[in-house]
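Ops channel
N.P.: pipeline sanity check, posting one input/output pair.
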């Protein structure tokens, strides 16, 4: 039998190229696999070595056996803290701050005093680095103000060595940075291959969980934005943490797409500075300063909902005459496909000609918007830039635009308008179906509209007359 060292495909004859992964020169002869093509020799099962079932009531409860991380909101998401023996996966783009938040998490855990500790007992964290040398980690730790006396560093990429050290030192948590750099001596595959990642993760789970040692695995992502490695890696861990944000922006968002300890509908907000990642209690206070700036064309404000929280979002647009045969549509923070659809709808149902124009769209702070409630603000920003007419900075635009140019109601409209009133907005343009959202006591002036054409007619119908007056014409 011949085994591919890249993808573990088994072949009955040798060839220069693997037929599955298309890798060259990876097929190796394995005489030991002739007895069992799956690489495992079958064992005779007897009644003596068969596992016995037991009552669920006899299992010891571990509800109170949790370590506080020092991050209050993260403890709440994880059901009160980090469960003993839990396995967490932290993913994100290169340079987004995975290693930074891992060090900060380790520091906050060792500084958190647990009443179950006796005398001089302290938490110990084992930080395994497969990408950086200890000097780089020490420099980052000093910059972040991390207590380096309670964090142990291990510079190796062999998982067997790592697990042996963990058995001897017995830390409360092992941080593995990153799993793509680790390998197992028992797996004949290249470092970083799906088989190595899967096998290393399984060894971590089988060894650390019975010892009650938690593990935080740092993982890389693909160019599509997904976690690298086999999908089975996400199934093995107890929780998946995903850190996202633009490198040029200080805002970071921590999402929890998988969580066996609590909800997946919560997110954590951080701001990156020279001292690391600082939790943000209210991101709207960070964005409210943009309201005081001078009004410019192509800018509009909206509120979006994400995991039960409302965020003030500024949408900026630049519309210029195209210099190429095919107009460009580029977006940062907004789905480019959504921009294409909205541009087509506006070209058909408004008088503004966008067929021969390049449209560049961006959100302030590069915050990603998944809420279709930002459609009306996107359209308002595009119209404002196309006509070169600024919009009022205290005006809000909330609504989803359908393919027929109609406005549809959005979720959490009432809470968004209440939050906007607290931040000092004077008026809001919303779908007509949501005009009864606010009470009569509200000071926010509501403009309900049915189509995108009504927004264009109100703000930009006197464009030529206004320009003539500005030029001094009678």
């Amino acid at each position: 039998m011949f085994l591919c060292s890249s993808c573990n495909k088994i072949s009955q004859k040798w060839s220069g190229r693997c037929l599955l992964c298309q890798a060259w020169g990876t097929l190796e002869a394995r005489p030991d696999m002739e007895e069992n093509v799956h690489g495992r020799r079958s064992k005779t099962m007897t009644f003596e070595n068969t596992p016995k079932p037991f009552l669920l009531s006899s299992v010891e409860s571990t509800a109170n056996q949790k370590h506080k991380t020092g991050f209050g909101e993260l403890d709440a998401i994880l059901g009160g803290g980090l469960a003993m023996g839990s396995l967490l996966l932290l993913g994100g783009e290169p340079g987004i701050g995975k290693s930074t938040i891992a060090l900060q998490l380790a520091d906050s855990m060792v500084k958190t005093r647990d009443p179950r500790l006796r005398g001089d007992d302290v938490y110990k964290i084992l930080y395994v680095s497969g990408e950086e040398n200890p000097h780089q980690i020490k420099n980052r730790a000093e910059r972040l103000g991390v207590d380096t006396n309670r964090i142990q560093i291990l510079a190796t990429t062999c998982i067997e060595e790592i697990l042996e050290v963990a058995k001897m030192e017995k830390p409360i948590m092992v941080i593995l940075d990153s799993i793509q750099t680790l390998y197992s001596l028992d797996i004949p595959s290249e470092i970083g291959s799906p088989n190595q990642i899967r096998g290393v993760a399984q060894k971590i789970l089988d060894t650390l969980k019975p010892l009650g040692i938690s593990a935080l695995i740092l993982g890389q992502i693909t160019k599509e934005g997904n976690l690298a490695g086999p999908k089975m890696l996400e199934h093995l861990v107890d929780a998946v943490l995903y850190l996202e944000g633009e490198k040029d922006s200080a805002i970071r968002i921590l999402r929890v797409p998988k969580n066996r300890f609590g909800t997946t509908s919560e997110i954590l907000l951080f701001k990156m500075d020279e001292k690391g990642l600082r939790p943000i209690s209210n991101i709207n206070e960070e964005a409210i300063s943009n309201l005081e700036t001078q009004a410019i064309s192509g800018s509009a404000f909206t509120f979006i909902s994400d995991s039960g929280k409302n965020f003030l979002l500024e949408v900026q647009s630049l519309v210029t005459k195209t210099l190429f045969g095919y107009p460009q549509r580029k977006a940062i923070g907004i789905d480019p496909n959504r921009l294409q659809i909205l541009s087509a709808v506006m070209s058909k149902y408004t008088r503004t000609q966008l067929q021969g124009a390049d449209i560049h769209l961006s959100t302030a702070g590069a915050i990603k918007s998944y809420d279709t409630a930002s459609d009306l603000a996107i359209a308002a920003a595009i119209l404002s830039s196309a006509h070169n007419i600024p919009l009022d900075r205290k005006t809000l635009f909330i609504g989803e635009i359908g393919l027929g140019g109609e406005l549809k109601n959005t979720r959490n409209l009432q809470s968004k308008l209440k939050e906007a009133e607290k931040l000092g907005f004077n008026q809001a343009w919303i779908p007509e179906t949501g005009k009864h959202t606010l009470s009569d006591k509200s000071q926010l002036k509501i403009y309900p509209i049915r189509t995108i054409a009504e927004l264009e007619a109100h703000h930009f119908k006197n464009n030529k007359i206004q320009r003539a007056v500005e030029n001094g014409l009678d």
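N.P.: looks fine end to end. The longest strand covers residues 309-321.
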